[in-house]
Structures are given as C-alpha cells and as structure tokens.
Amino acid sequence: MLLSLVLHTYSMRSLLPGLVLLGSAPTYVLLWDAWRLLSMLLPCLCHRVFILVYGDLPKNKENIIYLANHRSTVDWIVADILAMRQNAVGHVRYVLKDRLKWLPLYGYYFSQHGGIYVKRSAKFNERKMRDTLQSYVAAGTPMYLVIFPEGTRYNPKVLAASQAFAAERGLPVLKYVLTPRIKATYVAFDSMKNYLDAIYDVTVVYEGKDRQGQQVESMTMTDFLSRDCPRVHIHVDRIDRRDIPEEQNSMKQWLHERFERKDKLLMEFYESPDPESRNRFPGKSVHWKLSLTKTLPSVLLLSGLTAGLLTTEAGRKLYAYAFICGTLFGCLWVSVRE
C-alpha cells in the first residue's frame, strides 16, 4: 500500500508546479498550452476529409424529417453538413435523449433552438412532444427535424441486445444497424404530416481502418479528428410525404423496411464480392466541398473572442462566471420547463 502511495505521488510530481505557474503567470501558461494544442491539432486539421453524397438530396430548402443510422457523435455534424448544402442550418432541430438536457450550456441552447428531449419506452411523453411540434407548425417554424430511430449509437454490445430483441419479437435481425424505435418518428410525422414536404432517409458510413488494418464500423469524434477517416459516404433517399403511411402500425412496418434497406446497403458497402461495389454506395456520388467563405468568418470571430477573453484576467473571470452561471441557469430553466 505504501509503495502504491509513493507511485501515485510520484505520478503527480508535475501537478503542484503547474498550479503554481498557472497562478503566477496565467497568460503565459494559457498561450503555451494553446500553442501546444495547435501543434498537435494542425496536422489533423489540414487533413482533408472527402464528403461523398449519393442519392437525391435537393438543393432547395424543405420542411423535412431527417432519419438516419447512428454510428458516431459525428452524425450531428453530418446532419448540419447536409442542411448547409441547402442553406438550412438555422432550421435544424434535434430529437435528443432526455439526459442530454443537463449538458452545460448546450442543454439550454438545444431546448431554446427547438430541440425536443425524449425519454425511452414507458416514460416517453407523447403529448408533450406532439404539443411542441404542433406549436412550431402553428408558428410557421422552418423544420429540419433530426431523429435517430435506433435510439443510441451502434456498437457490438448494443447490437447483440438489439438482435436478441428482434429475434424474440419476430422482427428482421439486422447486422449493421439496430432495430429502430417507432414512437418519436411516428409522433413527429403525425404531428406535422400536412406541414412536411418529405422525409430524408439518410445512411452514413465513415470509411476508416483500425491499427490492425480492419474496417472500422463505428467511429468516435476523436478518431474522426485524428486523420482516421479519409471519406464520409452519405446516401440520401428523399421520400415524399404522400408516400408515407399515416397509420401507426403501417408506419412501424415501413420504418423497419427502411432499416432493412439500410442494412443491405451497408452489407454491400462492407462485404460486396465485387471490388468495384465495395466501399461505396450504389449510384453516382458527388464530392461536396465546403467553401471557406461559409466557415472562415465564424471561426475567426469565435477564435478572436475566445482569445480576447482567455488572455486577460478580467476576460478569464468573465468566461468562468458565464460558464458556471450559464450552466446553472440552463439546468434550472430546463427543470422548470419540465
């Protein structure tokens, strides 16, 4: 035990000098840390990720529900990328897990920007979600509602549970996607069916390999930012509102059929015996480039404001107070709204 204590103490040998230095010369330490961070990230940021879009994504804005497989935290970025292609980033709203409302600052932001927090299974509050969506329709709010019907991210452990559930219920046992949940999708469509133009059925693959050279089926944000993803493949099926069944059981069957189709698309992507068909979706792809004019101004503005705050004592205090007070206010706000 004494040896363990000595080892732990030795492992923290740099902590006290670091705290002393931070207190005596905070500006220098923050600038040094920023430089070290940039020296680590710049090679990754200079690495280009190719965005390949397949299918029939319109260029004009529409009121839509966006249904996609959920493989990574990067999926939120993909939804924004497609919305940006249609100049509709400001229209994006998310259906989110209820516990995400406690995220510092972001939990409050999402709720104020039209996000809808939902609980699973018996705790799902259908009336609340329906009332919220119908209020948006009544107000004429542009709608780009992002839903991940699987309910959680794909990984081997969750896949095994999903396959067991599907086999027990007599549903198709899927390999590359999870069995979808119907409630949020049905309530969203039923609440806005006369307001929507279409549903976008989106299938996303992050192309990459692990250190053993094996294809990665799910990817973390860290992997994505660490040059482990050379290409993102996005397949879009636009389904007109009039072609979607309105009755709940019929829509449940329709949603399962759409996920069966996703599974076949992904199986073909990973396992096709034809090398020409592997690592790509069927059909023609469009390499979509994001113009710097759409991103650079906001990056420079945010970076400039952040640097201005962190390099002065008053700015750091303001930054800390805003974070702490904003988080407490946001948590209080979402609690009261519940």
From TrEMBL:
Domain of life the protein comes from: Eukaryota
Q: Which GO terms describe its cellular component?
A: endoplasmic reticulum membrane; mitochondrion; nuclear envelope; nucleolus
| Keywords from the UniProt entry | Acyltransferase, Lipid biosynthesis, Lipid metabolism, Membrane, Phospholipid biosynthesis, Phospholipid metabolism, Transferase, Transmembrane, Transmembrane helix
SUPFAM superfamilies, from UniProt?
Glycerol-3-phosphate (1)-acyltransferase
The family database entries (InterPro entries) matched by this protein are listed as: Acyltransf_C (IPR032098), Plipid/glycerol_acylTrfase (IPR002123)
BP-aspect Gene Ontology terms: acylglycerol metabolic process; hematopoietic progenitor cell differentiation; phosphatidylinositol acyl-chain remodeling; phospholipid biosynthetic process
Would I find Lipid metabolism among this entry's keywords?
yes
According to the entry, every stretch annotated as the Phospholipid/glycerol acyltransferase domain falls at 64-186
Residue ranges annotated as transmembrane are: 12-31, 318-336
Query: Annotated Gene Ontology MF terms?
Result: 1-acylglycerol-3-phosphate O-acyltransferase activity
Q: Which family does it belong to?
A: Belongs to the 1-acyl-sn-glycerol-3-phosphate acyltransferase family.
Protein's name in the database: 1-acylglycerol-3-phosphate O-acyltransferase 5
